[in-house]
Amino acid sequence: MLAGASLLPAACATRQAISYASNPFTMGVASGDPDANSVVLWTRLSPDPMAPDFGMPQSAVFVQWEVAEDDRFNRIVRSGEEEAHAGSAFSIHAEVGGLKPGRTYWYRFTSGNAVSPVGRTRTTPARDADVQGFRYVFSACQQYNLGYYGAWRHAVAENPDFVVFLGDYIYERAPRADRDNVRLTVNEDALDLASYRRRYASYKMDEDLKAAHAAAPWLVIWDDHEVANNYGGDFNQQGLSTADFLLRRAAAYQAWYEHMPVRKSSAPVGPNTRIYRSFHWGRAGAVQLIDGRQYRTLTEWPEFGADRNQIPDSDLRRDPKRTMLGLEQEAWLFDQLKRSNAKWNILAQQFAIVERQVPGKKPGQWMYGNDAWDGYPATRERVLQALSGTSNPSVIGGDSHIFMAADLRIKREGALVAPAFVGGSIASPANDVEGLSIAMKHNPDMHFGENKVRGYTLVEAGPKQMTLTMRSMVNARDVKTEQKTLAQFVIEDGKPGATRI
Ligand SMILES: [Fe+2]
To answer: Fold match between 6-122 and 134-500?
Structure first.
């Protein structure tokens, strides 16, 4: 009856008299954003996630957490308590400090008579530790109705130190009846806080996804579908007024925060939430996690209309004042990159960052996607300039539902700065299967591309090289899918770019 959870006799309940008739840990447990001494532990109490009250009382509920050095909790090293409120959907973000660097820990929550499943997490090595390397997996885009999450099951079997998720955790629209659905969420568009919460609940009750969260700490950023398709800044394509869109964005950000293992500093204030941040693995690695959605300027194109996704080149497109990241985030990012002493510098962002020009209708005309970096080439140049000053830079992305390896240059004919990878999508199919080969034909820096399969990428960083292994699912529409290795790339220490092996 209670998958992965157990109920204690009511007499054992501490402090709070709440007694659950069924498992409140329906969405499992998660951890995230570790540093050398601390980590965030997440859960959400919700015996009945689709009910307006989630099956919870109106009053606040106390939740105890424990962190142990062993999975049987014989050596509990930290414990504490958080209050869960209806206002944040009874979600918990416990920031646990006082941990040792570079260690594996196990954690669990207790509320009244209910005990959560056990999660495993890991602290990073100390900032100045001279560690040999690290391993992580990354992916993005998990449209629930169009595929199962077998990729997560295989990804956690790789035993990564951490997981990086690059956005499109949910898709906000109701599953369309004319799509090839393998399963359904509630038949509604997510538009307000209650419906975004229901959308997260549908996704987060998936067993493979819960297991992936319980296996390792995650570093999560968002893309557009956590809010609305192709939004940028305060601009939307759904026809809402700016004021109404910002209300929707505030609801979406709040629901995202309630369901992600992120620090309390990422709690939204109205329609604003800072999620850009740095992550360090001793002196071996630094990951800059950035937000390519919230701070965009000039998303609207007066001459083309608001929802134009493919645009020709123009002075406006190249305007240096046009920013995808916002000048404050840009300044923060450039400062982080400048100060980084990591051997491997990873920029974790939402998109296929490489320039992708395709022929337009007029002779000699090139068209560019307005929804990502090609709509903001000046920002990309500034970012690549900053990356070029770091040790062994690489860029990882999601969004486009493909596997891709590419070379990045500040100017199209310039020197190679860094390799870029799109690490696959967990479940979302490619929107335009034929479009990839056309793009590759006209953009030789896109030297590997595959968009018919789903999956993730494993990254193994060592003292002399970093290896990226793309794993694809044999059939993402089969919950029990096997996987295979799609392609492997290696980056040699001190040499820009990646070579397929
Ligand atoms: Fe996506």
So the answer is: no
pLDDT digits (tens, 9 = 90+) for 60-81: 999 999 999 999 999 999 999 9
Answer yes or no: is pLDDT of 168 > 70: yes
- Tell me the two tokens of residue 193: 């806080």
What is the CATH class of 6-122? Answer: mainly beta
CATH of domain 134-500: 3.60.21.70
> How far away, in angstroms, is 173 Cα from ligand 1 center?
12
Determine the residue type at 314.
S
Q: Flag whether pLDDT at 388 surpasses 50.
A: yes
The torsion angles phi and psi of 446, rounded to 5 degrees, stand at: -85, 90
What is the 3-state secondary structure of 150-180? Answer: HHHHHHHHCCCCEEEECCCCCCCCCCCCCCC
* Confidence (pLDDT) at 310: 85
Q: What is the pLDDT of residue 389?
A: 96
Residue 11: band (very low, low, confident or very high) from pLDDT cuts 50, 70, 90? very low
User: For residue 146, how far is its CA from the centre of ligand 1 (angstroms)?
Assistant: 12
The alpha carbon of 452 and the centre of ligand 1 are apart by a number of angstroms equal to 14
Q: Domains of the chain: which residue ranges? A: 6-122, 134-500
223 C-alpha to ligand 1 centroid (Å): 8
Cβ(66)–Cβ(94) below 8 Å: no
Nearest 5°: CA angle at 386, between 380 and 391?
A: 125
How many angstroms does the Cα of residue 167 sit away from the middle of ligand 1?
Answer: 7
